[in-house]
Design a protein that fits this description.
Blueprint: E1 2-12, E2 18-28, E3 32-36, H1 43-50, E4 58-63, E5 66-67, H2 73-81, E6 83-86, H3 98-103, H4 112-116, H5 122-134, H6 150-162, E7 168-172, H7 180-197, E8 200-205, H8 208-214, E9 217-222, E10 225-230, H9 237-244, H10 248-260
Parallel strand pairs: 3-8, 3-9, 6-7, 7-8
Antiparallel strand pairs: 1-2, 1-4, 4-5, 9-10
The structure holds adenosine-5'-triphosphate.
Protein name: Phosphonate transport system ATP-binding protein
Keywords: ATP-binding, Cell membrane, Membrane, Nucleotide-binding, Phosphonate transport, Translocase, Transport
Domain ABC transporter: 4-248
Length: 261
């Protein structure tokens, strides 16, 4: 059974053109799936609809056997504890330390008062240390986040998502602001999250070659529609053209390189 299923999801920001037009796909538990497509294709809108940061105009989304698109406040909060989110610009609290930012991932489980007072159990702190170690941030644990590099900030973002104990992590352009070195470290950690922790990852990416290297499956989106859904090995030049239109010429070089190796 699918962990996540989108059925005919439509989103209109304005009355004229839909940002999403009958988007349907399913993600199984333990899969690493990339969504690729040109700027404005609707990739971020898909992720924001899944965790209900925005409301869909039509269609249905189910997650872990629950109709997520219909949940009311309390259930929605519960759903969001099971879906971690990682952002291009990290969304950390800069003046707080690494461990404080990571512990913020537990806020969804707490009353507002406990959250405001920063009350975390010994077990939560133990868990935070463990995850910070896995992400290679032990030396930075008490450093303020505004003193970290972009790659380190994104590792804090991953740690904050992991401490939620999520079933799935949504990543919106996690490497778009990073250099190739830091990008590789982040993608390796995300792949680990699926391979070694069994957590499903759904990631928006600009770089086709990165999607080819890391994904179990690739979903290609163009103008709000899914135009490819298949294995990386099945992504052919004509699919790239369907996904990227006139931008595709440069990207075909990446596919050529993959086929040559
Ligand atoms: N809050 C908003 N209000 C109005 N239109 C929006 C809003 N957010 C996105 N859009 C529009 O919806 C479409 C899809 O945008 P979206 O950000 O989902 O695309 P994307 O594939 O993630 O692009 P990018 O790679 O540039 O982030 C675009 O035409 C965009 O202009």
């Amino acid at each position: 059974m699918a962990l996540l299923e989108l059925k005919n999801v439509t989103k209109y920001y304005n009355k004229e053109t839909p940002a999403l037009d009958k988007v349907s796909f399913a993600v199984r538990a333990g899969e690493f799936v990339s969504i690729i497509g040109p700027s404005g294709a609707g990739k971020s809108t898909i992720l924001r609809c899944i965790n209900r940061m925005i409301e869909l105009t039509g269609g249905e989304i189910s997650f872990d056997g629950v109709l997520a698109s219909k949940l009311k406040k309390r259930e929605l909060r519960k759903l969001r504890t099971r879906i971690g989110m990682i952002f291009q610009h990290y969304n950390l609290v800069d003046r707080l330390t690494v461990i404080e930012n990571v512990l913020h991932g537990r806020l969804g489980y707490k009353s507002t008062l406990a959250g405001v007072l920063g009350r975390y159990s010994r077990e939560e702190k133990r868990q935070a240390y463990k995850i910070i170690k896995i992400l290679g941030l032990t030396d930075q644990i008490y450093q303020r986040c505004d003193q970290l590099s972009g790659g380190q900030k994104q590792r804090v973002g991953i740690a904050r998502a992991l401490i939620q104990n999520p079933k799935m992590i949504l990543c919106d352009e996690p490497i778009a602001s990073l250099d190739p070195n830091a990008s590789k470290i982040i993608m390796d950690h995300l792949r680990n999250v699926t391979t070694h922790m069994g957590i499903t990852v759904l990631v928006n990416l600009h770089q086709v070659n990165v999607a080819l290297k890391y994904s179990d499956r690739i979903i290609g989106v163009n103008q709000g529609k899914v135009v490819f859904d298949g294995l990386p090995d099945h992504l052919a030049v004509e699919h790239i053209a369907d996904i990227y239109g006139s931008e595709s010429k440069d990207l075909i070089i990446d596919l050529g390189e993959r086929n040559a190796s």
